[in-house]
Amino acid sequence: MNYENSLAFAQQLDQADPLRHFRDRFHIPKRDGQPLIYLCGNSLGLQPKTARDALNRELNTWQNLGVEGWFDQPEAAEQPWLSYHATCKDALAHIVGAEPSEVCPMNALTVNLHLLLASFYKPTEKKFRILTIKGDFPSDQYALETQVKHHGLDVAKTIIEIAPQDDGESTLGLIHTTDIQKAIVEHADSLAVIWMSGLNYYTGQVYNMAAIAETAKLHCIPIGLDLAHAIGNVPLRLHDWDVDFATWCSYKYLNGGPGAVSGVFVHQKHHDQNLPRLAGWWGYREDRRFDMTPGFLPASGADGWQVSTPNILALALHRAAISITAEAGLVALRQKSEQLTGFLEYVLTPFDEIQLLTPDDPNQRGCQLSLLVRKKGKALFTYLTEQGIIGDWREPDCIRLAPTPLYNTFEDVWQVGEALRKFF
Ligand SMILES: Cc1ncc(COP(=O)(O)O)c(C=O)c1O
Ligand SMILES: Nc1c(O)cccc1C(=O)C[C@H](N)C(=O)O
Fold first, then answer.
1. Residue 208 region, left (φ>0) first, then alpha (ψ -120 to 50), else beta?
2. Largest CB tally within 10 Å, which of 14, 71, 256, 357?
3. Considering every ligand atom, which ligand is closest to the CA of 137?
4. Record's Gene Ontology CC terms (predicted)?
């Protein structure tokens, strides 16, 4: 697309945007009565206007029915709480490219990572190592480290981290897909599992998940993905890519609220394998759960990884939010996202003080651009915030801005260019 740096051009794109009405479905935060330019969906997505009603519905059910809210009552809840999670499956399956039986909302990301590793990390004397990406989100690093210790293994000998190569391009933190594939092949004999992000939280780089999963499969190594920054942001086809397992957050691009419920993906091919797991009664066969008999019988599919009673209020927010993403559709969202982020890249280009950490290839990024600002970076971030432009700051010199196709406009992006012009 040929961009122009003018307000009229940005407004023209907004008028032509088939998703423009979705912005009205969200509360846009305001300061002094003016809407903020909110470019921080990479950290916390905005509140859908349906969120409050969704919560109220379940609060009313609780108020009116008490415990009977769990069960099917003729006069009762629209959706009995016992099977509430199931009403999120179609939307989630669409968003991650899965079968409904392969996904289930539950817990929080890091908790799910531990639960999934209990099933998929089964170190043996020969195959005990974990391959991961250096600089992936700290919570994942802590989870891997403590899993390794939990198995009585030495962290330094067990975790292999793929670091960016010092070849100019990669010094900015990018990692070539071929380097990840090479590392898989090189260490295949000792690898028990691969765990990595699909989209790097710091650089905004999207890895070629399909190609990496294919290499992992060729070498029979289970691969799991952290999709915190990828879900609702970039197209995913977890089933077809033959990814073994995955988990994500829904408080970013899925707009489920602070600390929103996470979810898991477990590929169909693992459903009947009776994999080891850390079980709880909510993962028990639903039709027999209340028999309360000894001996764990897992529910089929991803549901069998549930542990505890779900937080229905969190699920209500989740359901309301993901239905908006599913309604907009990942194809349309991605189309707008590429244009919106391309426009942001275009308005940033004149400023030599800003270097992009994020790849310029649209296939290697989602909506987030990470701006490396070596001089006056923090001052610029503070200035943007004062101007009502909300991004986030990551030490030591990175500003992340994420124009989100569900609620951001081309005019928002144009305003960033204007603010930068005044600052520099
Ligand atoms: C890539 C990534 N992984 C893991 C997490 C941790 O998620 P949680 O705090 O929900 O476990 C986050 C966000 O905080 C993240 O961005
Ligand atoms: N989970 C967060 C929180 O509880 C407070 C503030 C920020 C977050 C985040 O999600 C940070 C985010 N994962 C990141 O990419 O840095």
1. beta
2. 256
3. 1
4. cytoplasm
CA of 387 to the centre of ligand 1 (A): 28
Please give the pLDDT value at position 210. Answer: 98
Residue 169 φ/ψ, nearest 5 degrees: -60, -50
Check residue 273 and give its pLDDT.
Answer: 85
**Given a cut of 60, is residue 169 above it in pLDDT?**
no
The annotation status of 337 as a binding-site residue, yes or no, is no
Q: How confident is the model at residue 113 (pLDDT cuts 50, 70, 90)?
A: very high
pLDDT value of residue 77: 56
Which pLDDT does position 1 carry in this prediction? Answer: 85
Paired tokens of 187: 């260490």
Q: Is 281 annotated in some ligand binding site?
A: yes
Q: Give the mean model confidence (pLDDT) for residues 294-320.
A: 97
Q: Locate the ligand 1 atom nearest the alpha carbon of residue 197 and give its number.
A: 1
Residue 256: pLDDT band (50, 70, 90) is very high
Q: Which of 133, 330, 128, 104 is nearest to 212 (CA)?
A: 133
Give me 192's structure tokens.
Answer: 């028990």
> Separation of 225 CA from ligand 1 center, angstroms?
12
CATH of 7-47+329-423, one of 1.10.630.10, 3.40.50.2020, 3.90.1150.10, 3.40.50.1370: 3.90.1150.10
- From start to end of 93-140, where are the E strands? 103-105, 129-133
> Which atom of ligand 2 sits closest to the CA of residue 249?
10
d(CA 150, CA 299): 27
Single-letter amino acid, residue 291 = D
Distances from the Cα of 304 to the Cαs of 98, 274, 297, 393, in angstroms? 16, 10, 9, 38
Instruction: Domain ranges for the chain, please list them.
Output: 7-47+329-423, 83-327
Cα of 228 to ligand 1 centre, how many Å? 6
* Atom 10 in ligand 2: residue holding the nearest Cα: 43
CATH topology assigned to domain 83-327: Aspartate Aminotransferase; domain 2 (3.40.640)
Pairing of strands 103-105, 263-266: antiparallel
Pairing mode, strands 245-248 and 263-266 = antiparallel
Q: How far is the CA of 334 from the centre of ligand 1 (A)?
A: 22
